[in-house]
Amino acid sequence: MAVLNLSFSACGFLGIYQLGVAEALLRHGAKLLGSVKTFAGASAGSLVATVLVTAPEKLEHVKDFAYRFASDVRKQKFGAMTPGYDFMLKLREGLEDILPPNAHEIAGDRLHVSITHARTRKNCMVSHFASREDLIKVLLASSFVPVYAGIKGVEYKGQTWVDGGLTNWLPVLPVGRTITVSPFCGSHDICPKHEDLISIKLTLADMPIMDIGGGHMEVGWQCRVQFHLVLALAGRVGARERAAAEGVR
Q: Motif DGA/G: which residue numbers (predicted)?
């Protein structure tokens, strides 16, 4: 039997869709999850992958945190960029509360997290975590959207790292078959269905965001950052996002 992997894309607060997918898999796909050897993700997707690997029993708690976090950001005058608001501190507090003491041991070799080197802009996939704190730092780095989350990236092993979604939105592992999950319609295994008639294919940081027909559009580094910021700013959880999460159960 081929090796199975499960990978979650970067998507900002649209990660609530991926939490819905995770819940559906836990409820109805136990056999599939039991066959998955490795989990992977970038940015918000890495957080969902981490929960499935280390604390699946806390999924409801994670959903509540996501709703509260998004609501808190929404209340700020300028969102996460409001002076005095510490987006990364809020995220760290959530991770500290959710991850078990031995999360790094459980995640070792089973979890692959995409991060981006702040200076070289090269991608790195991290799968070994010396401590729980190291795991938290890697997850924070993978979720650090420049400007939106702060100015300076996350320090990890003497280097500065930022959002993994900037260089690898949807990790596909080199060994085995990777099942991909994304809240963006396209050629992913699990994603929303798009029934429009236009013919567009949009690729963002090596991930096809939309695949409708034969056209093709490549987006450069600056556009990746801008698009990611737009996603994060637009990621305000409300009735529509909740419905999306409920709809995949």
A: 163-165
Q: What is the pTM of this model?
A: 0.81
Per-residue pLDDT tens over the stretch 91-118? 999 999 999 999 999 999 999 999 999 9
Q: Is the pLDDT of residue 155 over 80?
A: yes
Catalytic annotation on 43?
yes
The crossing angle, in degrees rounded to 10, of helices 44-54 and 132-142 is 150
Rounded distance between C-alpha atoms, residue 195 and residue 180, angstroms: 20
Q: Of residues 43, 142, 143, 182, which has the active-site annotation?
A: 43
109 is known as an active-site residue:
no
Query: Of residues 231 and 162, which shows the higher confidence score?
Result: 162
Domains of the chain: 4-181 (3.40.1090.10)
Decide if pLDDT at 194 tops 80: no
End-to-end CA distance of the chain: 27
Cα–Cα distances (Å) from 14 to 42, 92, 116, 135, 152, in that order, read 13, 19, 20, 22, 24
Q: Which of 7, 9, 46, 163 is catalytic?
A: 163
Neighbour tally for 122: CB within 10 Å: 9
